[in-house]
Amino acid sequence: MPTSFLENIKTVLKAPRFLEDNMLGLISEIIPYISGLWTLPWIVVGFFATLILSKIYGEEYVNNVMKKIGLVILFVFIPILVFKLFLNIDFKKEEIDFVILSCVFITLLYGLAYVFALQNSKKISSREGKKMNFIKTVVVNQGRSAAFFGSAILSIEKLEIFAAIYLTLLGIFLFAAVPYILSVLHRKEITSDNKQKNPLPLYLRIFPWYLLIFPVSAVLIHSYTGLTTASNDYGIVLNFLGAITIPAALYYVGSGIKVDDIKMTELKKLFFGKGSDEMMWVRYILFLTMVITPIVVTIACGILVFLGIISTAWAAVLIINSILPITSTNMFLIPYGINKRATALSVTWSTFFSIPIFVVLLYVFTVLFG
Questions:
Q1: I need a labelling partner for 41 at 20 to 30 A (CA). Which of 224, 245, 247, 312 fits?
Q2: Which of 248, 250, 365 minimizes the C-alpha distance to 318?
Q3: Residue 243 vs residues 17, 69, 264, 363: alpha-carbon distances, Å
Q4: What SS3 state is found at 303?
């Protein structure tokens, strides 16, 4: 058989490996440009792209498409990102301690929201039904966008593990603990089969437990096999899928900012409007989430760091999560008796006000911990 023919066969057999190496090399080159501070412009891209597409295809169509994209990010990319992060760590005492701290912290934040709402409900109305509606609306809107907006924190290497732990635990609170508490407060009617109705969509009811599978399985795989994303070439693919999650999530956040809700007339109503209308509710919610909560968290973390109880990395994760905008997934909790309009406006305005603060904090923490 001619030598040239054998060489051609060898070349053909090597081609797939050559293409694979080139593809992996290309992916490795791309990752730095979709990580860190490079992710932040995607909020602006999402806002303007959605604005343009809404003019072409109609706002309702674009909103429906974005909802589906949001679910793909939530159920596919966020779990991949969490799995990738936990695959690279030894889950030891430090991580377990942070799990405990995060659970206590999130519980206290919702407790703060409840006390704040209870004290201010008397200013809203004298009717018990309306006061309870206000309390539930305020408590629900203490839930923040840790999965979409907060995923940008995962781009800071020294904070990524703790941020991932917080993200996972907050998901459990948002879609398991809070709905249960709301159902008790709302006194939902019992069906004939003696089961309590749960208006939360099935996919959101299973999400916290579905998400929990990924960090747990990653920790177990790493513990028993020692595998990390550096163990073989396919770890590069996992790193890429994890990295692309962050700009995709921030694009989704930008797409959720509604121009109609941030007009100057609406801004005046927000700051200077009087009466017991929904804008007054939004004012209370924003005061809690954008002023009181960050101040309380910052002071508490400062004291704990000063006393040597927690590290600066832990404090950074807790502080930056305290100024995140309200999560749009709170809209799914409306059937529990929370105010739809007040929640929608709170999501929009908190996103609008949070972006500059978040960008500055993310830059500072990137410099300090990057």
A1: 312
A2: 365
A3: 24, 17, 37, 18
A4: helix
351 SS3 class: helix
Q: For 295-353, what is each residue's pLDDT tens digit?
A: 999 999 999 999 999 999 999 999 999 999 898 878 778 777 788 889 988 988 898 88
* H or E stretch covering 246: helix 234-255
Q: At what angle do helices 312-322 and 340-369 cross, to 10 degrees?
A: 150
User: What CATH number should be reported for the domain holding residue 130?
Assistant: 1.20.1530
List all residues 6 or more positions away from 214 whose beta carbon is below 8 Å from its beta carbon: 79, 80, 82, 83, 86
348 touches 342 (CB < 8 A): no
- Any domain includes 11: no
> Residue 117 — very low, low, confident or very high, per pLDDT cuts 50/70/90?
very high
Residue (of 150, 113, 67) closest to 316 by Cα position: 150
**Would you say 252 and 69 are in contact if contact means Cβ atoms under 8 Å apart?**
yes
pLDDT at 2: 52
Alpha-carbon separation of residue 136 from 132, 180, 183 (angstroms): 6, 12, 10
Distance CA 106, CA 252 (A): 24
Structural domain tally of the chain? 1
DSSP 144: B
Domain interval for residue 133: 18-369
- Please report whether residue 221 resides in a domain: yes
User: Both tokens of residue 110?
Assistant: 């919702």
